[in-house]
Amino acid sequence: MTSPLISPDRTSAGFTAPPVRTGRAAVVAPYGSGKHYRDEFERQGWDCVAVTPADDALPPRYRGSLDPTGYRHVVVHGDDVAATAQALRGLGVSAVVAGTEIGVSLAEQLAHRLGLPGNDPRTSSRRRDKGAMAAALASAGIEAPRSLSTDRLQDALSWAHTLDTPDVVLTLSDSARSDGVFFCSGPDEIRSAWTQLHGIPNAMGGSNQNLIIQERLQGSQYVVNSVSAPGPGGVHRHTITEFWADRRTGTTHVSDRLDLLDRAKFVPRVLAQCTVRALNALGICEGPAHTELMYVPGRGPILIESGARPEVAYDPAAMRDAVGSDHIRDAVHAVVTGTPKSLAADRPRCAVSKVSLIAPYDGVIDEDLLLTLLTLPTVRGYVGALVPGTAVRRTVDLLTSPGRLTLAAEDPRAIAQDYATIRALEAAGLYDGGTR
Predict the structure, then answer these.
(1) How does pLDDT run along the chain (436 residues), one tens digit per residue?
(2) Distance of CA 431 to the CA centre of its chain
(3) Contact 44, 107 (CB under 8 A)
(4) Which runs of consecutive H residues, i.e. helices, occur in 129-245?
């Protein structure tokens, strides 16, 4: 078994720690949105330890991306959870959070061994494996897409034949961010998608031995962000922090745009009820969750999946600027105080949209058009490598989107105008920088 490696104490030479420290958090796999935990914990008077697999054990998309600056220690996890937990105990860690999807299961195991708040590691599969997730929802009487988890193509074809529609979705059991999602119509397309997915490593490092085939739902898609913590009498308290309408394009598995919804409206209230039931069924009682649902006419809200971690492709600074808080800040508040944040009725109100960039072909980001894009009046921030000269791939899913912009304004028409300009800039050569 491999013991964890611990970096030197970064506060021991030439740096004086702030006089007040109320705790130390371990951020497991602090990649993507998870990298923002460090700054938010620091704002609350805590410091952070990074926990990560060795670089060569990470999925390729995360290798070399850890910025150790600001972490008190970096603990490199091998294959010995007990040893890593012991290292964190020696460092005085008082909270463990998952930075991204690949850290969910390990964070739960570590928190359990340390006797710290966290979701039960015995039910981790409900939160990482889509097949186990669907089974847990069904047991709780919560409607989810009809689905089958299998490692045999013939089983998938036979199951699809029992549906009343030829349209299905073939996807991965343990991945995220629309990685490995194929919409299929009929057995030939299922066979083709199976060949491209089965046994091929996915973006999260999984082996894709088991695939999920499920009915293709038709309806309006939504995203719900939440933060959970124990409440009085052992009853878990779930606070819904954001509701988003997810507008998808017809040609890619990526959100065209997400529009922030008014929580007082009817649809968010219905979504909240379904989400809370799902969080309980999946054993999400601590920390943030990112849940995707579809409202299907005649059936109501149907849960697609839920991840026990912050939303990916998320710009917390832009959200704080627009509405006064964000998913990361709300999650840290729950860790520090032991209770989810109470959402004030007078929380700043404005229209907010998140617009995904969609490259129609492989290209290179153009400097002049990028400057125009980033200085549009409603653009508050972005995620992604939006640098002139950066190579981009044709967008087929969220992983291949060049970036996501956060737009905010008091008047939704201003966002609509800038949204139209974004798509016009893409059509005008935003990705033609290498040919000019």
Answers:
(1) 455 655 444 443 343 333 334 799 999 999 999 999 999 999 999 999 999 999 988 988 888 889 999 999 999 999 899 999 999 999 999 999 999 999 999 999 999 999 999 999 999 999 988 889 989 999 999 998 999 999 999 999 999 999 988 899 998 876 655 556 888 999 999 999 999 888 776 655 566 778 999 999 989 999 999 999 987 766 788 999 999 999 987 655 678 999 999 988 999 999 999 999 999 999 999 999 999 999 999 999 999 999 999 998 899 999 999 988 899 999 999 999 888 776 644 455 799 999 999 999 999 999 999 999 999 999 999 999 999 999 999 998 888 899 999 999 999 999 999 999 999 999 999 999 866 5
(2) 26
(3) no
(4) 130-139, 153-161, 187-197
* Separation CA 248–CA 272 (nearest Å): 21
Whether the Cβ atoms of residue 349 and residue 412 lie closer than 8 Å to each other: no
In DSSP notation, 10-60 reads: TTSSS-PPPS---EEEEEES--GGGGGHHHHHHHTTEEEEEEEE-GGGS-G
Are 45 and 22 in contact, with CB atoms under 8 Å apart? yes
Please give the sequence-ordered ranges of beta strands (E in DSSP) within 197-297, or none if there are none. 211-215, 220-230, 236-248, 255-260, 287-296
Decide if 27 contacts 99 (C-beta within 8 A): yes
Q: Quick one: which of 190, 227, 193 has its CA closest to 343? A: 227
Separation CA 242–CA 290 (nearest Å): 10
Q: Take residue 75 and report the two structure tokens written for it.
A: 């603990």
**Residue type for position 233:** G
Residue 199 has which token pair?
A: 């046994």
| Residue entry with tokens 């996501």 | 404
b/e per residue 112-135 (b: at least 16 CB within 10 A): bbbebbbbebeebbbbbbbbbbbb
- Mutual orientation of helices 367-374 and 412-427 as an angle, nearest 10°? 170
